[in-house]
Amino acid sequence: MRKYLRRPEQLELLPSLGKWLLIASVVAALAGSASAFFLVSLDRATEWREAHRWIIWLLPLAGMGVGFVYHLLGKQVDGGNNLIIDEIHDPKKVVPLRMAPLVLGGTVISHLFGASVGREGTAVQMSGALADQLTHVFRLKHEDRRILLMTGVSAGFSAVFGTPLAGAVFGLEILAIGRMRYDALFPCAVAAIVANQVCLAFGVHHTHYAISEVVPISAWSVLAVVLAGIIFGLVGAVFAKAAHKLGATMKRRIGYAPLRPFVGGVIVATAVWALDAYNYIGLGIPEIMRSFQEPMKPWDWLGKLVFTVVSLGTGFKGGEVTPLFYIGATLGNALAPLLHLPFPMLAGIGFVAVFAGAANTPIATTLMAMELFGADIGPLAAVGCITAYLFSGHTGIYHAQRLGHGKHSKHRRTVPEELRISDLAHFHKQRSEAQKKPPIPPADTSEPQIEHQANDIDQKGE
Fold first, then answer.
1. Rounded CA separation 198/407 (Å)
2. What is the pLDDT of residues 312-341, one digit of tens each?
3. Exposure of 69 in the CB half-sphere (CA atoms within 13 A)
4. pLDDT for 211-220, tens place per residue?
5. pTM, entire model
6. Is the distance from CB of 190 to CB of 20 less than 8 angstroms?
7. Signal peptide location in the record (predicted)?
8. Where exactly are the structural domains of the chain?
9. Using alpha carbons only, how large is the chain's radius of gyration in Å?
10. Which CATH fold would you assign to the domain 219-391?
């Protein structure tokens, strides 16, 4: 009789809950501390660069120096965020701890000398690398190690932007288009919330954005945001494709890795001097703040896009997200008069929607909009982010993302799941070539022909 008695499911859940509460808290402490140090260092580097603008001319040498260090010590971790995503999907070996100091130093140097890069990639890589060192400490199996890395991603994203809800979902949503793993929801949420608190405990203050007006939901406001979302999604796709294309071209044309950021540094420094484009380098937080307060130049988004693509595509270290915030906010600012919407509101929606399209994370970015700008913008931000996500296509800034569930019915029927989005173009090319080949005619195996061939053989034999 005893064997038929089962403990309640809730009791069986308690040990797992306790285990992940402990592990996620340790990951959060590491991620929050590392992110706090990183953000303080970034602020100091930015202040120094803005006070000494001449330092932009040393950008080529700085890029070459970082490239040389990575060439000697960082080949195993040069994949960055994509390495973390690949390890979550297919765990093989623990991410080397050296990823954390290398990406930290490389990003701070990039900002100090004037490259146009972000900070999210650095926080995620540091947190992922630090979290993965716990694999052996807690003797985790492959499946638990996947969750461990996801908690690191969530903790790093949350700490660097001060958005715990968005961070929790980002760690789940970033892995595959159209699919999330809810078995990691609790540890990712704990890690994101605690990491943000740890970062704040170090006295780090995140940027506060204020949107003065959010229009009521109406037929026109929804339609206008949909139209803007289409443009946001297309721009996100252009950014992702251009960055990947330039990176591949540079690797093909310049075999020696440290020379790539040297060339990129020459291009960026010369363009900044010639165009007086200092507002397009670094994080660009002041320009983002301005886009919520006053009309901007209609080409500011394009300027930031070009400078960021050149910086990242030639090998400078850093993230893509904050430049995408800049691009989206200034693009929304420029579109607002055309769509008869308040420019602070559309700048805020563009802020998150271009990122949603480029990273394929519409839910995380909707939550981010509500955390940064207030709950009132939530419905329209959701419309903008989802539309941008759909219209960015099957591309993205993280080429290790898998195609968990296609965005359109055509892809769901023809494209296999678990395909990396970087391999999607090759898959379509192979499929197209296979369709162009003429079909092989079936062999004629009718009985009369077989008998005729048999008679010929008999005659030759005689």
1. 37
2. 999 999 999 999 999 999 999 999 999 999
3. 17
4. 988 999 999 9
5. 0.90
6. yes
7. none
8. 16-201, 219-391
9. 26
10. Clc chloride channel (1.10.3080)
